[in-house]
Amino acid sequence: MPDVFADLVGQDEAVDTLRRAAASAAALLRAAHESDADDPDGPADGADPGAGMTHAWIFTGPPGSGRSVAARAFAAALQCVHGTGCGECPGCHTTMAGTHADVRLVVPEGLSIGVSEMRALVLRAASTPSGGRWQIVIVEDADRLTEAAGNALLKAVEEPPPRTVFLLCAPSTHPDDVSVTIRSRCRVVPLRQPPAGAVAEVLVRRDGIAPDVAHWAAAAAQGHVGRARRLARDPEARQRRDAVLAVPRRLTGVGTALDAASALIEAAEAEAEASVAEADAAERAALQTALGAGGTGRGAAGAMRGAAGQLKDLEKRQKSRATRAQRDALDRALVDLAGFYRDALTMALRAPVAPVHTDTAAMAEAGAQKWAAEGALRRLEAVLECRTAIEANVKPQIAVEAMMLALWKG
Ligand SMILES: [Zn+2]
């Protein structure tokens, strides 16, 4: 039976660290129980129960490497009744299913996590764990905390309640992602980009995907496990990727470059809209139901005034989430495009590495002939500059147009 770490693809070193930490966390709990039982000799086995465990962790790694998968698996191992992350006990089960009473997951819906959300969370995390083990707070995308929210978190991390564990996920420990003070209080678990072979293996084993499809998808997704699974299963995701990879062939002049820019932005918008539409509608319906329950009694006028504020809040949150979804979709397209020019570059250099996109390898080879290594490199850099510009809040339309012109001109 696979344990809770089974889906952490190609991360042997990190898994090893987390297993040892979970074991020493379990030893800490046992030691605490023994001293509660008034054992004058303390823990009997003489092991140092605290050695591998600490109260604050940061999981870093590129998108798709499994930061949140690792955090959740570690949380399960901490709540596991055997202290191992067996995958079968109620502690493991409820944590993996997201229903454990002592595990809280913060997923930023918009561009950042707000201070009020963080304060409420920190407050609840300070309470005694109802299951008798640990209170755990997982913050996905800790790099999207606002400064104020980061400060609220820092206070808790600096003076942690005895049984509370913070698990943060971020792309890196760069000060842009995680403040230096928070970083200094945490143990870092670096995850690497999993090799394509390991990703393909898990797609076959866990998702039942045919081996040839799994290998193609794993290479095309460049180590992003979730993206590989989508490519293998979702025909629309494949179509979107095909459209992006058709761009290099279509760039024949200024006009087509600008058209390609608009098409790329519009495709990202459409993809983002589809991904948030369902959640938006469900939230609006829930709010309307809640407000409809106000009735016409004495409190109704006050309720209506409150309703306007709630609606405005909801719209703001949804708009922020839509913006994030759009950026994520555009970024996926840019990563695909970068993979193509990387293929052209490695082919021009005759480097002995497998192409990212096996299905456009012939086109990349033609590009390699035409542009030589320098031309391919300039184009790769244009794509990467576009990503950086959008991350730095340059308007996507402007950044993508500049990139398309650079890709056309070389
Ligand atoms: Zn278990």
Shape: globular
Q: Name the ligand types.
A: zinc ion
The low-pLDDT segments are 39-47
Structural class: alpha/beta
Q: Calculate the mean pLDDT score and round it.
A: 87
The fraction of residues in strands falls at 5-15%
Question: What distance separates the N and C termini?
Answer: 53 Å
Task: Determine the fraction of residues in helical runs and give it as a percent range.
Answer: 55-70%
- Strand tally, please? 5
Radius of gyration: 25 Å
Give the count of helical stretches: 15
Helices and strands, in N-to-C order?
HEHHEHEHEHEHHHHHHHHH
Main beta sheet strand tally, sense and closure: 5 strands, parallel
Describe, in plain words, how this protein is organized in 3D.
The chain is α/β, with parallel strands linked by helices and 410 residues long. 62% of the residues lie in helices and 6% in strands. The chain has a five-stranded parallel β-sheet with strand order 2-3-4-1-5, with helices on both faces. It starts with 11 loop residues before the first helix and ends with a helix. Zinc ion binds next to helix 3.
Give structural attributes.
globular; 5 strands; binds zinc ion; alpha/beta; 62% helix
Quick description:
The chain is of the alpha/beta class. The protein has helices at residues 12-36, 67-79, 90-97, 115-125, 147-158, 180-185, 196-207, 211-220, 225-233, 235-245, 247-250, 254-292, 300-348, 361-391, 396-409; strands spanning 56-60, 103-106, 135-139, 164-170, 187-190.
Ordered list of secondary-structure elements with their pairings:
Elements: H1 12-36, E1 56-60, H2 67-79, H3 90-97, E2 103-106, H4 115-125, E3 135-139, H5 147-158, E4 164-170, H6 180-185, E5 187-190, H7 196-207, H8 211-220, H9 225-233, H10 235-245, H11 247-250, H12 254-292, H13 300-348, H14 361-391, H15 396-409
Parallel strand pairs: 1-4, 1-5, 2-3, 3-4
Helix pairs in contact: 1-2, 2-3, 4-5, 7-8, 8-9, 9-10, 10-13, 12-13, 12-15, 13-14, 14-15
This protein binds zinc ion (ZN).
Zinc ion is lined by residues 80-82, 85-86, 88-89, 91-92.
